[in-house]
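During the reporting period the student researcher (J.K.) took over the structure-prediction task from the postdoctoral fellow and processed the backlog of single-chain submissions. One of the processed entries is reproduced below for the supervisory committee.
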Amino acid sequence: MQHLNLPEYQFNIKKKGNDGLVILDTLRKRWVALTPEEWVRQNFVRYLIEDREFPAALMNNEISLTQNGIKRRCDTLVADRQGLPLVIVEYKAPTIEISQKTFDQIVRYNMVLRAQYLIVTNGMRHYCCKIDYENNSYAFLQEIPPYNVLAINHN
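J.K. obtained the following structure tokens:
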């Protein structure tokens, strides 16, 4: 798989018949097809847990939500210690440029979830913004803060 702009981690990967490779998703506790987007997800989740000290117990992949009667899936949701949405992460394959369309997608999910932080990554470039609901604005952060900093600054 492609080298990403993240530390290197070890994963459980195996061949599954003629279907190609599968990777063990430790959050979902099951094997999933190893697509380029999934490679980004697994690496980024590991980065959040190991390098940004996000509690794995407060993270979930592929969260179902309904918006305007349409079922959608949020790539990763991180909760605060009270179980409320704190961070939403949207992944794209490394070859996909992050565009306004990508941000529009995560903002639509956030209309339902109302997380305070949004992260978008293609494994090569990572963007994190903090939503200010009181002033109806947002600000991009220089880096992805550790979990305890996000949780402390959570309104």
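The committee noted the following: The beta strands are 13-15, 21-25, 30-33, 59-67, 70-79, 85-91, 117-121, 126-132, 137-140.
J.K. will present the remaining backlog at the next meeting.
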